[in-house]
Amino acid sequence: MTRERIYLYDTTLRDGQQTQGVQFSTLEKQAIARTLDKLGVDYIEGGWPGANPTDSAFFEDAPETRAIMTAFGMTKRAGRSAENDEVLAGVLNAGTRAVCLVGKTHDFHVETALGISLDENIENIERSIAHLVAQGREALFDAEHFFDGYKANAPYALDCLNAAYRAGARWIVLCDTNGGTQPGEIHDITRAVIAAGIPGARLGIHTHNDTEQAVAGSLAAIEAGARQIQGTLNGLGERCGNANLTSLIPTLMLKEVYASRFETGVTAEALEGLTHASQMLDDILNRVPRRQAAYVGASAFAHKAGLHASAILKDPSTYEHIDPAAVGNARIVPMSNQAGQSNLRRRLAEAGLKVEAGDPALARILEEVKAREDRGYTYDSAQASFELLARAELGQMPAFFEVKRYKVTVERRKNKYDQMVSLSEAVVVVKIDGEKTLSVSESMDKHGSDRGPVNALAKALAKDLGRYQSAIDDMRLVDFKVRITQGGTEAVTRVIIDSADGQGRRWSTVGVSPNIVDASFEALLDAINWKLLRDG
């Protein structure tokens, strides 16, 4: 049976940039566009040319993509022709193959927000789209507030869509701009639009996540007959975000009733890069990836309970809805004081350590994990540290280097501008192949600001590891979490460090001490040792 085509329209670079606290540089937008193209989306909305310098610069030097690069703008203003509207001209001047124009379809917004007549708005839509088509561009019309408009005045909302359709729009996109329309409503209204004469093959859906149903709403529109989905990587977007393509794409490709009925431009091979694409965006935003994110989160395929892990050993489908590798993710069986030998053997196997059931080492490792967790450690969220602990108990942990001593100083003083500033400095002495090396580092960043004692320690430790240096050059700290695990005079500090490297790997390590710097250093040492172990 021939499958129907679903077209994927990514608006991360435009609508995603409207997320509070998000502002992409031109270089970052170029990197994201290349990643989206590699993933296999059909359209990449690069931004609104002329709206800000970054968007304009992006279109001046947009990367070559297989995906159709699209510029975003709005329909012409009332009282002037499409040919003489400078805002519309700025969008066309971006030179993209496709142009998406947003226009009002809710009578309340037309009369209140725009302050024009309903007929003038329809004229603006039709003439703007016709002008794009006359210029040889593929035209898309974003029907803003469509679902609210349809519920308030269905004939007028449909008249707006028909104006764009008559003018030659390739896609008419139904927008749930306020994000409050329920999936069942989206389904029924999309069906009504098709019944009114606009083919589903020309309809798209653009949902917002204000009720945590943007993905469900998008799928409801597809089930009703729409054939384009607009969304963003990781669900970025204004307020609560947009429909999340990192959830929608694998659902369309791997889940019935969609997988056998529809196809997208994303191949099975490209889908394996989905987790990396998601993490890449978080890296650019300097955000910690959401562990519970569907499909791509670090906890999406984590199995903590002993009962679950035992079943997973026999057949992964007992507690996994897909193979994690299909989206580039991995199964994790965390270690904690709830763990039994099923969890332990599974986790050891994933680390490449084969230990037979009944081996006395299993009991030793479990006892050590439980004893350490009583002291404040956690191996549930520090898998790399657990692996190092297990290898040490099994006698399979190489001694790459030895830290002989370290010292950290923090100085508070006035600078030449008579301002109080702090400066952290670290000294680390390591022994490698019988030779001692002393490294010193300050914690100043490129702006002359102190990044703190832990930063100074990390820089000093990674400054000269002899023959291991090249293995850690692509290593970076992604996140740093501190927690006080006990109160009063017995308080100890737990530090968890998330690290990453140029191969896209991420790992977590833990350190515990009454001294925050010492706990941090322990976690840093584990992070480096795990990296060296993985790189052979």
Would you kindly provide a written description of the structure presented here, covering whatever features stand out?
With 536 residues, the chain is an alpha/beta fold. The chain has 19 helices and 16 strands. It has helices at residues 26-39, 53-60, 86-92, 107-114, 118-134, 146-152, 154-167, 183-195, 214-224, 245-254, 268-271, 274-285, 306-314, 341-350, 360-374, 383-394, 453-461, 469-472, 516-534, and strands at residues 4-5, 7-10, 43-47, 68-74, 98-104, 138-144, 171-176, 203-207, 228-231, 262-263, 402-414, 420-432, 435-442, 476-484, 493-500, 506-513. It has an eight-stranded parallel beta barrel with strand order 2-3-4-5-6-7-8-9, surrounded by nine helices. It is globular, with a radius of gyration of 28 Å. 44% of the residues are buried. The mean pLDDT is 91.
